[in-house]
Amino acid sequence: MRVSAQQDGPLLDDAAGRLIRPYTVSDGRTRPTTVLDLLSLVMATGTDPQTHLGPEHSVALGLCGGPTSVAEIAAHLRLPAVVTKVLVSDLVDCGAVTAHPPAFHDMPTDRSLLEAVLDGLRRQL
After folding, report:
1. Which helix (H) or strand (E) holds 72?
2. What is the pLDDT of residues 75-88, one digit of tens each?
């Protein structure tokens, strides 16, 4: 049995998979204290957390050297998005990271842009 925390994600076993249930990682919490979107960008502040963090918190913090989306963090941790939001929220609360919601313009889908992409795709076929 090989247990790995760095390569495969936190507390994974090659044969058994995840050794700790996701609800355990978030202490049973299902609601983050910070409003986060899957596209919210998270970045480390350089401040060391003053509270005890679990291994998933530490891995998540390590992923935030540059702007990283909540969805990317969830994928790296192999955790559900809601659990990841709780972990990131914990990191925001202790000042270890900042999180910024995605910036949408007044019109998130520009019809002319979509038509240009469609034309380009048709030319490739």
Report:
1. helix 70-77
2. 999 888 888 999 99
